[in-house]
């Protein structure tokens, strides 16, 4: 995909609907409706798929896949209509693959009966769907959910894996690093937090889950496909995008 100079991109990290932070999500939508974005990239784990998680449950609670799908489709529709003139890319995350892994282990006879992709974006979608463990290149930047790494240095590992600039989701962390090169443009490695609600996390101690910053990313393309990106942390449900304060 070849973006034009001055094109703007909105980068949406893990949302984990319905376990998302609704106020943070509303803030992102406000930015999406107000700013003029030519490209939108969802980095995966947009839906939590908690109902088909194979993790050992920590407590009893209602788990309903139909409800998760309905709320995720609604949220994805909100994002699309807020940015209807943009191109839309969806990088599948490991949470999107939870259903197929659940079926493979628990009910293989149901293989192919239900597709998370088709439920979320439809068969003939305006979304460019990128399968998990794959990536898409926009200008000179690779976008993917993850390259098999998590933690504080995952963005560095992604840039190393691609041997070029990379933006990832998955980690719920916000880090941005530019590394100079002798024989070319600097290499970017970045991850932009998440939009989940730490209060709904039951697989991690709350003290650790609270360390995951709310936020997202934006960028502007310069010449030759170079992307100038800006991490956008959400602090007290306010953020600053392209010099404008939202809250």
Question: What this model shows, in words?
Answer:
The protein has helices at residues 22-34, 65-82, 98-106, 116-121, 154-162, 206-209, and strands at 8-12, 39-42, 87-91, 127-130, 136-138, 141-144, 166-168, 174-181, 184-192, 215-221, 227-233, 239-241, 244-246. The chain has 247 residues and is α/β, with parallel strands linked by helices. The strands form three sheets. It has a six-stranded mixed beta sheet with strand order 4-3-2-1-10-11, covered by helices on one side. The chain has a five-stranded mixed beta sheet with strand order 5-6-7-9-8, with helices on one face. The protein has a two-stranded antiparallel ribbon with strand order 12-13. Helix 1 (22-34) packs parallel to helix 2 (65-82). The longest helix is centred in the first third of the chain and has 18 residues, at 65-82. It is globular.
Which labels suit this protein?
247 residues; 6 helices; Purple Acid Phosphatase, chain A, domain 2; six-stranded mixed sheet; five-stranded mixed sheet; alpha/beta
Gist of the model:
With 247 residues, the chain is α/β, with parallel strands linked by helices. Helices cover 24% and strands 26% of the residues.
């Amino acid at each position: 995909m070849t973006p034009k100079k001055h094109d703007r991109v909105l980068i949406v990290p893990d949302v984990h609907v319905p376990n998302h932070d609704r106020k943070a999500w509303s803030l992102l939508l406000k930015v999406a409706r107000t700013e003029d974005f030519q490209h939108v990239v969802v980095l995966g784990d947009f839906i939590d798929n908690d109902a088909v998680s194979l993790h050992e449950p920590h407590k009893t609670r209602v788990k309903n896949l139909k409800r998760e799908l309905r709320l995720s489709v609604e949220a994805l529709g909100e994002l699309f209509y807020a940015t209807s003139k943009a191109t839309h890319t969806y990088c599948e995350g490991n949470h999107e693959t939870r259903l197929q892994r659940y079926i493979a282990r628990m009910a293989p006879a149901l293989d192919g009966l239900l597709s998370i992709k088709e439920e979320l974006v439809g068969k003939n979608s305006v979304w460019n769907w990128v399968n998990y463990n794959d990536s898409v290149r926009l200008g000179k930047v690779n976008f993917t959910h993850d390259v098999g790494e998590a933690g504080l240095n995952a963005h560095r590992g992604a840039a190393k894996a691609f041997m070029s600039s990379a933006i990832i989701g998955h980690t719920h962390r916000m880090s941005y690093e530019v590394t100079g090169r002798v024989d070319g443009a600097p290499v970017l490695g970045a991850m932009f937090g998440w939009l989940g609600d730490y209060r709904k996390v039951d697989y991690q101690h709350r003290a650790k889950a609270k360390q995951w910053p709310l936020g997202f990313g934006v960028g502007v393309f310069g010449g030759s496909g170079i992307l100038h990106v800006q991490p956008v942390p959400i602090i007290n449900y306010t953020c600053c995008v392209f010099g404008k304060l939202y809250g």
